[in-house]
Write a structure and sequence with these properties.
single chain; 2 domains; EF_hand_dom; metal-binding; coiled coil; EFHD2 protein
Length: 164
């Protein structure tokens, strides 16, 4: 089964998913697609919220769906989903991770049962929002390509004055 973050975690924007993936890859020191106990320990220390060995194990256990004692990217995203929904205890390591990371899940995340129907209505508009984000990214790439083309032309013009 192929995992599609944008399909399953519709409460997050493409940018948020990209930021979370960047954070995940940053701390996946073994580059094996998982954050194990020692990598999680290092992550929490770098974020300024060191945890005990037992605390780290409990953090993993809270979102470890396949019981392999390490975090996949999907399980990592569950941390931010639970944080946005207010399902993490204030004193838990996962709450500290979600709060200390530079990713603000509260801007678009689901915030409990009272916002459930608002989130459902928002999900209907997800496709158009993703299309708008993709179009904006494409426009930015076109703009950068045009600027590069202009710089190259200006360089060639300047170069031609020196070769004569």
């Amino acid at each position: 089964r192929v995992f599609s973050p944008a399909g399953e975690f519709r409460e997050f924007s493409r940018r948020q998913l990209r930021d979370m993936e960047r954070l995940f890859r940053q701390y996946d020191a073994g580059k094996d697609g998982f954050i194990d106990l020692m990598e999680l320990k290092l992550m929490m220390e770098k974020l300024g919220a060191p945890q005990t060995h037992l605390g780290l194990k409990n953090m993993i256990k809270e979102v470890d769906e396949d019981l392999d004692s390490k975090l996949s990217f999907r399980e990592f995203l569950l941390i931010f989903r639970k944080a946005a929904a207010g399902e993490l205890q204030e004193d838990s390591g996962l709450h500290a991770l979600a709060r200390l990371s530079e990713i603000d899940v509260s801007t678009e995340g689901v915030k409990g049962a009272k916002n459930f129907f608002e989130a459902k209505a928002q999900a209907i508009n997800e496709a158009s929002r993703f299309e708008e984000e993709i179009k904006a990214e494409q426009e930015e790439k076109k703009k950068q390509a045009e600027e590069l083309k202009q710089r190259k032309a200006a360089f060639k013009e300047l170069q031609s004055t020196f070769t004569q």
